[in-house]
Amino acid sequence: MSASNHTPVEEAQHIRYHLTAAQLLEEGSAERLALRVQGTSMVPTLRPGDTVFVERVAAHELCVGDLVVWQDGHRYVVHRLVACSPAGPLYTKGDNVTVLDPPVSTQALLGRVVLVERGKQRVELRTGWATLAAKLMAWWGRLEARLAPATGWRPLCPLRRAYRLARNWLWRLLSRLVAL
Predict the structure, then answer these.
(1) Contact of 1 with 78, CB cutoff 8 Å
(2) What is the pLDDT of residue 74?
(3) CA dist 21 to 15, 17, 32, 50, 130, Å?
(4) Prior bond of 86 cis (ω within 30°)
(5) Per-residue pLDDT at 14
(6) pTM tops 0.90, yes or no
(7) In angstroms, rounded to a whole number, what is the distance separating the alpha carbons of residues 45 and 178?
(8) DSSP character for 104?
(9) Of the candidates 162, 146, 36, 47, which has an alpha carbon nearest to the alpha carbon of residue 96?
(10) Separation CA 70–CA 137 (nearest Å)
(11) Cα 128-134-140 angle, rounded to 5 deg
(12) Residue-range domains of the chain with CATH
């Protein structure tokens, strides 16, 4: 999620809005922060134009599978938490990306996505099916990151095609379960 296709004036307004909103959340003045998704790294879970609602949360309260938001320079990133340790960094990955993100420090953490709004549909992410689907997607993301070493998929091309078919099928099934 980033602000990349804007004029310089729109970009400055976008950054100022998000920094102000983030400060409100960090200070405890706001319970939830609404952010509009602009990138494609979380497709099909999140699509450009979706609105995510973020609540402030401490790193020790996160669970594998949660969608977390952190600050990366002047933009906010929403990716799935695939691994974490109590004292260490967070390991995240976009659902539509084959490699893990660089480790995220807990100081950069803004919060956890608790609600997704797409058009007229609203889905709470902290409920039964959504929680199960998130854990499965996190497990699948870790598997994908192990199968896609930094050198690429070339030795595993036939496996990559089968993997992508299985991933797309799983995403469609899980998206239906959580009604997105």
Answers:
(1) yes
(2) 79
(3) 10, 6, 9, 18, 26
(4) no
(5) 46
(6) no
(7) 10
(8) B
(9) 47
(10) 19
(11) 140
(12) 8-177 (2.10.109.10)
Q: CA-CA distance, 135 to 178, in Å (whole number)?
A: 13
Each residue's pLDDT tens digit in the chain (180 positions)? 444 455 444 444 444 444 455 555 565 555 678 889 999 999 888 889 999 999 988 899 999 999 999 988 878 899 999 998 877 899 999 988 888 899 999 989 989 999 999 888 888 888 777 777 778 778 877 777 776 654 455 555 566 667 677 777 776 776 666 555
CB 3 within 8 A of CB 11: yes
- Distance in angstroms (rounded) separating the CA atoms of residues 110 and 161: 35
CA 32 to mean position of chain CA atoms: 16
| Cα(33)–Cα(110) distance, integer angstroms | 10
Give the pairing of strands 32-36 and 51-55: antiparallel
- Residue 166 identity: A
Strand partners, 32: 55
Alpha helices in 60-149 (DSSP H): 128-147
